[in-house]
Amino acid sequence: MQLISFLFRSSRKLVSIAILTGFLSGASSAGLIALISRALGNGAVSQIAWAFVGLAIVSLITSVISQMVLIQLAQDAVFKLRLQLSRQILSSELRHLEQLGNARMMATLTEDVQAVATAVSSFPFLCIDLATVVGCFVYIGSLSWVVFAMVMGLFFFAFATCQWMLNQARRRMVFAREDQDVLFRHFRSITDGIKEMKLHYPRRQVFLRDELETASASFRRHNIHALVLFASAGSWGKLIFFFAIGFVMFALPGIVSIPPETLSGYVLTFTYLMLPLDKMVLKLPILSQASVSLQKIDMLGLSLKQKAESTTIPSTVQTWNRLELKSVTHSYYQSEDTKFTLGTIDLTLNAGEIVFIVGGNGSGKSTFAKLLTGLYAPETGTILLDGEPITEHNREWYRQHFSTVFADFYLFDRLLGLDASDEDAQRYLQQLQLEHKVQVVDGRLSTTELSQGQRKRLALLTAYLEDRPIYLFDEWASDQDPIFRELFYTEFLPKLKHRGKTVWVISHDDHYFQFSDRVIKLDYGKVEYDRVTSEHP
Ligand SMILES: Nc1ncnc2c1ncn2[C@@H]1O[C@H](COP(=O)(O)OP(=O)(O)OP(=O)(O)O)[C@@H](O)[C@H]1O
User: Is the shortest distance between the CB of 334 and ligand 1 below 6 Å?
Assistant: First the structure.
């Protein structure tokens, strides 16, 4: 049902057409069986032959139409789902995404979407099979309503008794899906922690045995249980079905008088029914997995929607003079022991300043940077840009004032969304002494496979090309050699200031503090001091 409503969301009209033609095709197939059975029973073969040809053509054409429409629809729906989820992730609050975790999002974007894609691509065949089954039942009903009532009774008995097993199987599928989130976390440990694993044999062994193997075994166990239950449900259903055939063939003629041609009609129809029923049973796990995945997708979508930010197209970025933080706080809630609160912070930052933000590890500098750049919304208090409070309605616009290189920056291999020519980029590459390593052609970087220090210089190139009023660097110089570090503090920063830019630098390099206009020191989330630098060059 969830799958149908998922497809309906894509296009009600097309789904209705596809289901209708699918049913027509299935009904025609059932009609063919009725004709064959009648042809076996009486002599008007030539008339029946024409009807047979007609029905075969209808069955074929409607089947092709149904499949074509549904394949297109299903792929459209999955395409939309992928884009919608990606958009929702990109427009959700950063803090919320951090709490959800990458593994959870990756599992949904890859595994869940794929499970839905697999199920929806089998949907056209399911419709045709279902229609064939219904058509066959109708034919049985046309032969004798007593037999029809009996078959339906058995059918509902089989369904009711299978329901328990199907519910149990579905529960196991839900558990298996939870295991998948854990597995994705472990896969991340493998890719991100490969060096640490390779260098430490005992760590690798413990990780493989206690973490990966345990999660994989749990995933395997739940999947086996689910699939065995599905198979048992299928076999139980088949057993009842065989019982129905046996009853009709051997017991029923003794109870009521049935002409031999009607009896052969039943047997033929029942035998024909086996194929679509078998195929439907085989699809049960796929459908169940898709419904679990759709639930996961909906849950993620809902949680992302609740924390969605307004993404109004940003108006042009203005020149600014004053940025005020009034009673701003931000807390991380993990547990009472590890709770960290930044603030309360009251500060005014001015345009054109070079401000160094300093403090020990864990003092809150990066958190402060995320608040300043609008990546985190203050928990309490307000940020005002030239007197205008930054709220959820203008935070997207506010963020467009910043070019940043965070400590955990990401390097795109294309100059995405930048209004800069290859020549501009090449000029900056020369300044950053990377022109022999990297070329920019059609806005694409020839490589990003560089040393960490060189990668940071490439991130700086992107920040330069963004050309925004405020620059924020989170420990940019920490990976640079002494010469480049010196260049950064003594040339790059003053040049930016000279171009009218504001520069905020998170730094531990205290012997370069003289190149700042102001130093703000944080300690345990509080501003310890906020000093205008006296020795300004
Ligand atoms: N994503 C997060 N979830 C929960 N707690 C966090 C998160 N990021 C940081 N913290 C907590 O907030 C505190 C401040 O972290 P923050 O990264 O702002 O410090 P920092 O001054 O930049 O440190 P460093 O100099 O080591 O980079 C830390 O004690 C940390 O435990």
Answer: yes
234 CB near ligand 1 (under 6 Å): no
Q: How far apart are CA 85 and CA 301, in angstroms?
A: 7
Residue located nearest, by CA, to atom 16 of ligand 1? 364
For the chain, how far is it from start to end, CA to CA, in angstroms?
Answer: 71
Q: Is the distance from the beta carbon of residue 340 to the nearest atom of ligand 1 less than 6 Å?
A: yes
Q: Which CATH superfamily is domain 322-532 in?
A: P-loop containing nucleotide triphosphate hydrolases (3.40.50.300)
pLDDT of residue 217: 95
Q: What is d(CA 141, CA 305) in angstroms, rounded to the nearest whole number?
A: 50
Which candidate, 305, 318, 380, 374, places its Cα nearest to that of 343?
380
In tens, the pLDDT along 293-332 reads: 888 888 888 778 877 777 666 667 778 889 999 999 998 8
Q: DSSP for 81-110, please give it.
A: HHHHHHHHHHTB-HHHHHHH-HHHHHHIII
Q: Whose CA is nearest to atom 9 of ligand 1?
A: 367
Ligand 1 site, residue 363, Cβ cutoff 6 A: yes
The atom of ligand 1 lying closest to the CA of 525 is 14
Let me know how many helices (H) and strands (E) the chain has, helices first: 18, 12
pLDDT recorded at residue 216 = 94
Kindly list the domain boundaries of the chain, sorted by start residue: 2-306, 322-532
Q: Which atom of ligand 1 is nearest to the CA of 475?
A: 27
* Any ligand 1 atom below 6 A from CB of 362: yes
Considering the segment(s) 2-306 as one domain, its CATH architecture is Up-down Bundle (1.20)
Residues 270, 343: Cα–Cα separation, whole Å: 75
Q: Decide which of 160 and 372 is more confident.
A: 372
Contacts of 341 (CB under 8 A, 6+ apart): 329, 330, 331, 525
Between CA 229 and CA 172 the distance in angstroms is 9
Atom 30 of ligand 1 has which residue's CA nearest to it? 362
Cβ pair 177, 114 in contact under 8 A: no
E strand spans, 436-517: 440-441, 444-445, 470-474, 502-506
Pairing of strands 502-506, 470-474: parallel
d(C-alpha 448, C-alpha 451), whole Å: 9
Which pLDDT value is given to residue 335?
A: 65
Taking the centre of ligand 1 as the mean of its atom positions, its distance from the CA of residue 99, in whole angstroms, is 14
Measured CA to CA, the distance from residue 363 to residue 342 in angstroms comes to: 8
Residue 123 to residue 381: CA distance in whole angstroms: 52
Q: Choose among 76, 46, 525: nearest CA to 330.
A: 525
**Nearest CA, atom 5, ligand 1:** 332
Average pLDDT over the chain, rounded to whole?
84
For ligand 1, the distance from its centroid to the CA atom of residue 103, given in whole angstroms, is 20
Measured in Å, residue 346 CA sits from the centre of ligand 1 at 20
